[in-house]
Model the fold of this input.
Amino acid sequence: MIKVGIVGGTGYTGVELLRLLATHPHAEVTVITSRAEAGKPVSELFPNLRGHTDLTFTAPNVDVLLGCDVIFFATPHGVAQASMQPLIDGGVRVIDLSADFRIRDIDTWEKWYAQEHACKDLVAKAVYGLPEVNREHIKTAQLVACPGCYPTSIQLGFLPLLENNLIDTQSLIANSASGTTGAGKQANVHTLFSEVSDSFKAYGVSGHRHLPEIEQGLGDIIEKSQGQPQPVELTFVPHLLPTIRGIHSTLYAKLKGSVSDIQQLFEARYKDEPFVDVLPANDFPQTRTVKSTNMCRIAVVEPQDRGTVVVMSVIDNLTKGASGQGIQNMNIMFGFDETAGLNAPALLP
Amino acid sequence: MIKVGIVGGTGYTGVELLRLLATHPHAEVTVITSRAEAGKPVSELFPNLRGHTDLTFTAPNVDVLLGCDVIFFATPHGVAQASMQPLIDGGVRVIDLSADFRIRDIDTWEKWYAQEHACKDLVAKAVYGLPEVNREHIKTAQLVACPGCYPTSIQLGFLPLLENNLIDTQSLIANSASGTTGAGKQANVHTLFSEVSDSFKAYGVSGHRHLPEIEQGLGDIIEKSQGQPQPVELTFVPHLLPTIRGIHSTLYAKLKGSVSDIQQLFEARYKDEPFVDVLPANDFPQTRTVKSTNMCRIAVVEPQDRGTVVVMSVIDNLTKGASGQGIQNMNIMFGFDETAGLNAPALLP
Amino acid sequence: MIKVGIVGGTGYTGVELLRLLATHPHAEVTVITSRAEAGKPVSELFPNLRGHTDLTFTAPNVDVLLGCDVIFFATPHGVAQASMQPLIDGGVRVIDLSADFRIRDIDTWEKWYAQEHACKDLVAKAVYGLPEVNREHIKTAQLVACPGCYPTSIQLGFLPLLENNLIDTQSLIANSASGTTGAGKQANVHTLFSEVSDSFKAYGVSGHRHLPEIEQGLGDIIEKSQGQPQPVELTFVPHLLPTIRGIHSTLYAKLKGSVSDIQQLFEARYKDEPFVDVLPANDFPQTRTVKSTNMCRIAVVEPQDRGTVVVMSVIDNLTKGASGQGIQNMNIMFGFDETAGLNAPALLP
Amino acid sequence: MIKVGIVGGTGYTGVELLRLLATHPHAEVTVITSRAEAGKPVSELFPNLRGHTDLTFTAPNVDVLLGCDVIFFATPHGVAQASMQPLIDGGVRVIDLSADFRIRDIDTWEKWYAQEHACKDLVAKAVYGLPEVNREHIKTAQLVACPGCYPTSIQLGFLPLLENNLIDTQSLIANSASGTTGAGKQANVHTLFSEVSDSFKAYGVSGHRHLPEIEQGLGDIIEKSQGQPQPVELTFVPHLLPTIRGIHSTLYAKLKGSVSDIQQLFEARYKDEPFVDVLPANDFPQTRTVKSTNMCRIAVVEPQDRGTVVVMSVIDNLTKGASGQGIQNMNIMFGFDETAGLNAPALLP
Done:
């Protein structure tokens, strides 16, 4: 059993790590930190864990964390970068679920997050933790930057089209919708039940922080598969769903020419991927079919054969979109079966 | 007070007509038909109407209906066309909330609805009841074909862009989401609470019956404003929301060139429309802000100034998307104040 | 048209007052105060009111408020009592939606609300605004203390049983459930969508602030109808529903003897009440049948004829449970038709 | 690995069995029957199981079923009793999730289910599968009648009070609320999303089929613990929650005398039970804290020390209320660790 530390475990990605690791065959959480809740039993904050853990939140301590085999950061952006250097120096492996090390261009990061990056030297060292693209690099990485929830669903949806150079990369559209856990556990009028329930809206239309991450990722897929870059322009519109979990991305692209069998193309690309499921033709994904799991389910259609391809991609934003993908990365890094601890079927109904 | 008849009033558009007409200053429902529920008091089926109506469902009878000033059809497609001729011959005015008379090309109708049209002669006589486009024709129409819910939200969203010839009409995208009342009140496993709640999905991606209606409507707007037709191709993807009411359409189009002030363009186009509200810049619509009302709220953005315009348009699918728009049409047809009976603010929260 | 002022109109009871008064035939809101939002247009905070009001929030000012005919307090407890004296001295009539003047025994108030009462002298002057019990006193009241939401649903449910001395008043049980708007619009982790949705719980089981108000009200009903007091003991357990609006109270009491026709008793008691609807036998109320309205719907059953009577009572917590009842009181105070502005049927579905 | 057969696996308890057994260490499903869906892959009906099962529905066949070690009936009432005799004769062990063998008095069963019982001889042979009461008998049972969902939550809540003879058993009250999966997966207008969402109601107030099962169970607890029967009268009012899963029972009873420490009594009674969790004092259970698990969480309070005890008990109706408890029974019957396959924490949020 490897020893796992969690920094900042009081939010939704924290409890999701604890839920999933509670049944992991090769890993156990030995320390979980929170300045605000130090001294409080974890099961008091998360009553679903009563009987599953005896852990108590502690104030973060580098020496204690260095006693772990791997550290997860389940913190808002800005925290991991401020704490990372001594952990990396101490040799521990780190999986950061936040946005701190996802974007290679530091100016871009600083523009979108409106603050100076506190750990510029380690940005280049971080491996972007999307296993379907970067599995080999993840194996040996010391620092993995786990992708955002929207970026995961969107990159996996466009991937087979980009790798096969089938679409115009300058007029991509991602129309995405997320459950409210995507907004975190902070007290906020805009995410009250009375404000969100029985309604639907777009937000961040003028520019969302996940946009540069997605465009970087799509560009990487192109460059890696075709040997040279192409300009990528994505119109990304996120929406807020009255659901607890789930992201549904509906992707649109213009096909460069006629394609014989896109369905088969998607199936072939993902047939060996344990966490990507291409649905049969004419079957469309529902967010509930991935609830609580690390699975991404995808469908692809060219409506009316008019040259516009539509991809639908669903994930659980807290699992494949955050903590589950983090554990998938951990499994790869430590040589475990990639699906260890991530085998349970989705909760449906 | 004019006398209103409702044919087929046991579904959600039926009870919405009754709810709205209960406080209308110039109209009263005098007959409501249902073969299945004949003899049952309306308030037994719809307990929200207890104390508001003494009506009882009756079997449909042409002579009785001809005693009304106006008849609403709140029936599934196929019913209105089978009953229409004697009513038109009898001189009564009719507002059909179903799809029977919306599409001018009968072959197209028959292809998408997979049945022969039973009243071809009256199709050309019908006026498409979108007041923001057809107000003058509605005034004198005997037969109004009330637009579908998705088509209303999409046409009102694209309208100012099409009238000003600003967008490429062959690569339009409408990503829409509807509350479950859009699926009607029929017993159906797919719309059970346990199947819809806490989930989200696309459906009808390969082709939805509203597509030809929308493309016809967009084409009409172009031809009317520019004097000649342009080919229109729309990719339309509807989604099912875990909400009772509400449609949110997110529309995407390529701008033909740079546009100085799209916001101002939308505001100018709709400033005199009583039921279209253009939101201030950087404010995006929520379906709950139109719940229970006949209002359409719209926002427009060009994200990152990259040449793709995004329009968001919300309506209540049962009100502006059906029964409310029907009453708006009735008000126009009978010379009432267009907002009569449609003045109450949205129910929020 | 009388002039209405609203103090503290940024919460859910504030926007509900504005929604209902927007169509009131005899009243118009002329001033609405908020220290925090002073200067902001009301429609910016409540987008459902765009097009319905030009009001802007202002800082509270006694002179301005004294220019109104009636003032509503839509504030948390503690605010009305601190501001009341100069308004009463100035002769304006006041309807307080908060708990400040509901409880006659000042020690009891101070114990349950854990603060000193700031306006003890006016407590005795306040009339408890439950029209079904106190209509005559309300007509001439200067200060009306509008009942709480749970207390309204519970008192109306027990009323016919108590007035006829049919039940053991020392073993009453009220099992109530409320939608989340009952918790107000404050930012709070416990009322986030992600915490409330798809769940259900009891709260305040050891003692809820509405308990003394309810017991006082039940005692008043007994004393008024029977000429002498009886001890009242109620076990009151509130629950939190994953709904926006609605209170459902399920009441249990032991019958003192066999009763011939409780159904008829309830129907007779409420036949002239415009806002209490006794359902037919074997029909049970749903909160959605009163959504957006001032109606209370009630059913009564003696299951298995075993001597325990069960009453079910539903209201909309923001309407009959707060702002709607406030307007009903206003109508009574000013001699308007009691239902003025409160006529629209419930929004269903 | 034992071989498991499931009869009638197309409903919600069927898919819940499949979900839980997919990760069970000692059992695998080898046959699942459905007349209506024979020939269809299970994962086509339940897309959450894609990648987890290769099973196909088959028409029921006794010889095939007799090849299993244990058979679950996940059928509506009436089916198991019609098919049971040959299976019992064949020696296979059976766990019936339906109501067919729960009630010992056949007249009572026939009265409440309004049909003749088709297998009277086996009723006495069936063991009532509530492990917290009947664990010893379950070990050797051939036919286990798994308790209903409401009965499980209510019996576990009253159990410590009855075993210690602390309450008046003739004035018990159970106010329960269930998620909509309790109504099954049948197409039905009353359980449509548009009918259930954002609302709450009581149903079956005059008499629900679970009442005789609960009263029998409470009587058994009394007789077993105290050596002689006591009359039991329960007022049971079920309500429909706008949630997918979850039962919350709020129980009320009159204490016979003062009790020193009810909290301690509950904790002591359940300290060795793997699936009953007594919450700390002043903490109340939420249905979401048991979602997807076999856990029952309980709290107990005597509000205001007035002699009425209130117990709150929550379960997941599909897990501890049906399929999970069935697997718990299977584990006991086959000598597995009682928690095998039932270890995962609840899905929260």
